[in-house]
């Protein structure tokens, strides 16, 4: 060691390591991952009675029953409204948590992206309501139907989780979000042919259960921080 | 001949606690006094002294207020503080790089 370096209170390596550790500590304190997952699970479960009991529209009678040309208007209205309410609740949660923990939050970009996705979903819903399609007779789906699948509520929630993973710089949430996105994309390309009034149930129950399990897991590993700093 | 990176170090910022304050404030955007004290493991008086130095250098902004009946002190980073933090980290990285280069030259 030279005399010059001895006058420096800490070595550059130690200072840089301390900077990294403190930055990580702040990021952990800012996380509240379990709550958005719980909210998304809740709005997915609430969609079940809407899907089941709001009467479908644009149906026509066929020999062995009824063919409906897409989701009913209640469902089309429900999802954009539910997503906006969810984002408001999530933003309020993060702001309240930031005040309680004494550390700011970066929730702004998340809310902006969420609002944009809710608007896109609403536009897709309106277009879908105005341009119904008949279920295809083969196994494949028309290209525009696949596009509507991408603009589904499940995909919107999965993308919201990926944005949240970026905001929180949380690799575990990134992995969860990608897995959830894959499930939603696979589900969105399924054609359901069933006469049961509950035919939609797997499409809502599977993501709801995945989200609930994720919420429980992230709640279990949440940071323990003094409540009043 | 280029200047040694140590010459670019700012005495106000190049101090473990003050660098920690700037790092936390940068990462959090806005941080409360109690969180800083807990994260940096300082007494209130000690932290207050470091904050006063940074505020005098216009690197942070201190805002006092109330949340309910509880007094709160919030700290935010100024644009000058953001620049100072970036420069300090760049200088530190450059120092580490030069030390590692010198070390590899002497060992080879």
Q: How is this structure best described in words?
A:
- The complex is a heterodimer of chains A (229) and B (108).
- In chain A, strands 1-2 form a two-stranded antiparallel sheet.
- In chain A, a hairpin with a 2-residue loop joins β1 and β2 (65-68).
- In chain A, α7 (153-168) packs antiparallel against α8 (171-188).
- Chain A is mostly helical.
- Chain A is elongated and about 85 Å long.
- Chain A is built from nine helices and two strands.
- Chain A has helices at 3-6, 12-30, 34-53, 73-101, 108-130, 143-150, 153-168, 171-188, 201-220; strands at 59-62, 65-68.
- Chain B has a three-stranded antiparallel β-sheet with strand order 1-3-2.
- Chain B is elongated, with a radius of gyration of 17 Å.
- By secondary structure, chain B is an alpha+beta fold.
- The two termini of chain B are 25 Å apart.
- Chain B has helices at 16-28, 33-40, 44-56, 79-107; strands at residues 30-32, 60-67, 70-77.
- Chain A binds chain B through residues 4, 8-10, 12-13, 15-16, 18-19, 22-23, 25-27, 29-30, 98-99, 101-106, 226, 228-229, and chain B through 6, 14-16, 19-20, 23-24, 27-35, 37-40, 67, 70, 72, 89, 92-93, 95-96, 99.
Structural class of chain A: mainly alpha
Radius of gyration of chain A: 23 Å
Report the helical percentage of chain A.
Answer: 55-70%
H/E order of the elements of chain B?
A: HEHHEEH
Beta-strand share of residues of chain A: under 5%
Strand order of the largest sheet of chain A: 1-2
Q: What's the count of strands of chain A?
A: 2
Q: Name the poorly predicted regions of chain A.
A: 1-8
Cα-based radius of gyration of chain B, to the nearest Å: 17 Å
| Main sheet specs of chain A | 2 strands, antiparallel
Termini Cα gap of chain B: 25 Å
Number of helices of chain B: 4
Name the assembly state: heterodimer
Biggest protein-protein contact in the assembly: A-B, 28 and 30 residues
What's the average pLDDT of chain A? 79
Briefly note the structural class of the backbone of chain B: alpha+beta
User: Which overall shape of chain B is indicated by the principal axes computed on the Cα atoms?
Assistant: elongated
């Amino acid at each position: 060691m030279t005399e010059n370096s001895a006058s420096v209170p800490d070595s550059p390596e130690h200072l840089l390591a301390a900077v990294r550790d403190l930055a990580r500590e702040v990021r952990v304190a800012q996380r509240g991952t379990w709550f958005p997952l719980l909210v998304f699970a809740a709005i997915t479960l609430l969609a079940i009675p809407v899907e089941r009991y709001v009467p479908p529209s644009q149906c026509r009678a066929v020999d062995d029953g009824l063919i409906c040309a897409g989701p009913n208007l209640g469902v089309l209205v429900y999802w954009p409204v539910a997503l906006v309410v969810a984002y408001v609740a999530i933003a309020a949660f993060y702001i309240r948590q930031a005040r309680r923990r004494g550390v700011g939050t970066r929730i702004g970009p998340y809310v902006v992206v969420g609002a944009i996705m809710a608007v896109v979903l609403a536009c897709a819903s309106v277009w879908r309501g105005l341009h119904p399609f008949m279920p295809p007779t083969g196994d494949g789906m028309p290209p525009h139907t696949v596009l509507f699948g991408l603009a589904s509520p499940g995909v919107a929630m999965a993308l919201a989780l990926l944005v949240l993973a970026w905001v929180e710089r949380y690799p575990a949430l990134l992995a969860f979000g990608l897995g959830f996105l894959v499930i939603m994309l696979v589900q969105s390309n399924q054609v359901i042919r069933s006469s049961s009034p509950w035919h939609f149930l797997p499409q809502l129950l599977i993501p709801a259960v995945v989200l609930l399990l994720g919420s429980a897991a992230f709640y279990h590993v949440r940071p323990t921080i003094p409540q009043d700093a | 001949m280029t200047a040694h990176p140590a010459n670019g170090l700012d005495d106000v910022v190049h101090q473990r606690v003050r660098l920690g304050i700037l790092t936390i404030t940068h990462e959090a955007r806005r941080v409360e006094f109690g969180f800083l004290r807990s994260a940096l493991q300082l007494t209130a008086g000690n932290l207050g002294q470091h904050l006063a130095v940074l505020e005098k250098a216009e690197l942070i902004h201190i805002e006092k207020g109330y949340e309910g009946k509880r007094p709160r002190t919030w700290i935010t980073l100024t644009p000058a503080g953001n620049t100072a933090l970036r420069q300090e980290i760049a200088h530190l990285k450059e120092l580490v790089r030069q030390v590692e280069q010198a070390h590899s030259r002497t060992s080879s």
